[in-house]
What does this fold into?
Amino acid sequence: MKLKRWYDQVNVEEIFENNKWAVTLDDRLIVTRNEKPLFVPTKQMALAVASEWEDIDGLVPLAVLPLTSLLARSHDDMPKFRNYYQDEILDFLQNDHVCFRDEDVQRDYEKQLEVHQPIVECFTKQTGLELGISHGCSSQDHPKKTIDTIHLFLKTLDDFTFHLFHSTIHATKSVATAVALWANAITIEHAISAVSLEEDLNANEHGFVEGAHDLKRAQTVVDVHCAALLLQLSGVPAPNQQTLSLLGDATKELEKLSQNEIEREARLNAMMLQQFKQALNSEIARDPENKKALQFFINTLEQKQEDSQPPKPKDQ
It folds into this structure.
């Protein structure tokens, strides 16, 4: 779909009341399909969006405004789809394609070591987390610490950055590649080679299909470039060993506080139940004829008291 360029000037303006930046077309804010103003967190990101609109001459091809389109989706999709996207990210992590090795075909195996292994090493160096490598048809077995830490890290991200991270993962089909791109530890060209490797190997063996492989490759190039660029311009640092370690320590402290609160509540409940039992026993002593009915309540209270005890910590 194309529309005639209806604006003359493209400007970048700072929105002081919410500490954001916006792109204006003849002093009019760009808005999303849901009529939300397209605010971005940094001036660099706003300049990147402005360049898309400034470079248009004549007709406006709405389908080729990838930066604007991606940012608009980040405004419209969040927080509505955050839980769904989080599950998708964890699925990508569990089945990260850079962690698969096909040892049955020596040529493919060597290419995977050449393209994918450096990304795995970059991820581990950046985050301090290990990834499991699967060989043949065996499933990946990442350490529990890796999965839990990434899960916790996702919860710390604001909706906007979370969506950009998800978009980068979706474009590269890999959490490891997205983290390496975010940290600027690999080039975008390397990421594109990694996500396209299996298809390139198949095309070399079975033939290249024009109008299919080339179009898919072109779309991959656009998706990876846009998502990685915006993530790097977000102003939010990539996860690293120090921040993830601090996150893990803080989580442990919160778990201790939560456990202490559970134990405190259990003690209060036990005290109240004990007082109620004493009152019932006094009533039995005063009116022995109601002993059977009152004893039923005492037995019920004893069961509740037992159930209210905090769970014992599991042996590590």
Observations:
- The chain has three domains: 2-64, 78-239, 260-307.
- The radius of gyration is 28 Å.
